[in-house]
Design a protein that fits this description.
single chain, alpha/beta, Arginase, Chain A, eight-stranded parallel beta sheet, 7 helices, 8 strands, globular, binds manganese (II) ion
């Protein structure tokens, strides 16, 4: 997984891994800004190889590149900084696999993708619908990004799975925006609809059970197993045009196991994006 000296050398449908080390919109605990570094550390620690389960070696296939982190030292504000940084990679024709960061980063990432894909479906794996109009007075909080995305009309369709924290406000918001929610209590793989437009996967690691993924800010028991999420990724149709893995909080992790899970899921998502 080389780092290109210049992103203009990326080719169409290469997969570019981009870190988004940003957690200023976390409502409860900080920490996800350190997520990209921890996932990379586990990815390269030598404990596992670089193969995805479909047999692709991501290290030697020549189509997966690590393009580093978004640079937040520029003064244009977090939204514009992430949107522009993602847009620069997408302009090369490469697909973007982003590592958060808290879930607020998905809003500017989707803004960048929507410019390329006027018809886009998001599949969100999450314990939470993140549809709050505002949280603690912050309309940019990591509990709000999908309200902003739907208000801006950036996507055709939003499908959420793993959800197990719905309150009345978020039910109302889901109805207002036409969000399709398969709550965790109702989950069965065959309930996942067929997608007929380009697909973007946003994976909040708290969608998994805290037993599998303790390194997140909000422990919500009763979530997916690692194997269930791997199977969901492997069975996705059509091909993924973009993805993010967010909300790893290394402060809450044990022995790097959630970061290791993040690196495993990164391999499976990258392999699916290469199809
Ligand atoms: Mn989330
Ligand atoms: Mn969540």
């Amino acid at each position: 997984m080389r780092t290109p000296t210049d992103i203009s050398t990326l080719s169409t449908n290469d997969v570019a891994i981009l870190g988004v080390p940003f957690d200023e919109n976390s409502s409860f605990l900080r920490g996800p800004a350190a997520g990209p570094a921890e996932i990379r550390k586990q990815l390269h620690c030598g404990s596992a190889n670089y193969y995805a389960e479909d047999g692709i070696d991501l290290a030697s296939c020549g189509r997966v590149f690590d393009v580093g982190d978004i640079d937040f030292r520029v003064a244009s504000g977090w939204l514009r900084t992430i949107e522009d940084g993602a847009g620069k990679v997408l302009d090369t024709g490469a697909k973007l696999l982003s590592l958060g960061g808290d879930h607020s980063v998905t809003w500017p990432l989707i803004r960048a993708h929507a410019k390329k894909h006027p018809k886009l479906t998001i599949l969100q794996i999450d314990a939470h619908p993140d549809l709050y109009d505002e949280l603690d007075g912050n309309r940019h909080a990591h509990a709000c990004p999908f309200a902003r995305i739907m208000e801006e009309g950036l996507v055709d369709r939003l499908v959420q799975i793993g959800i197990r924290t719905l309150n009345q406000h978020q039910r109302d918001q889901a109805e207002r925006f036409g969000v399709e929610i398969i709550e965790m209590k109702d989950w069965a793989p065959e309930k996942l609809p067929d997608f007929d437009s380009p697909l973007y996967l946003t994976l909040d690691l708290d969608g998994l059970d805290p037993a599998a993924a303790p390194g997140v800010s909000h422990h919500e028991p009763g979530g997916f197993s690692a194997r269930q999420v791997i199977e969901i990724i492997q069975n996705l149709r059509p091909i993924l045009v973009g993805a993010d893995v967010v909300e790893l909080n290394p402060v809450r992790d044990h022995f790097g196991m959630t970061a290791m899970l993040g690196s495993k899921l990164l391999r499976e998502i990258a392999a699916k994006m290469l199809e």
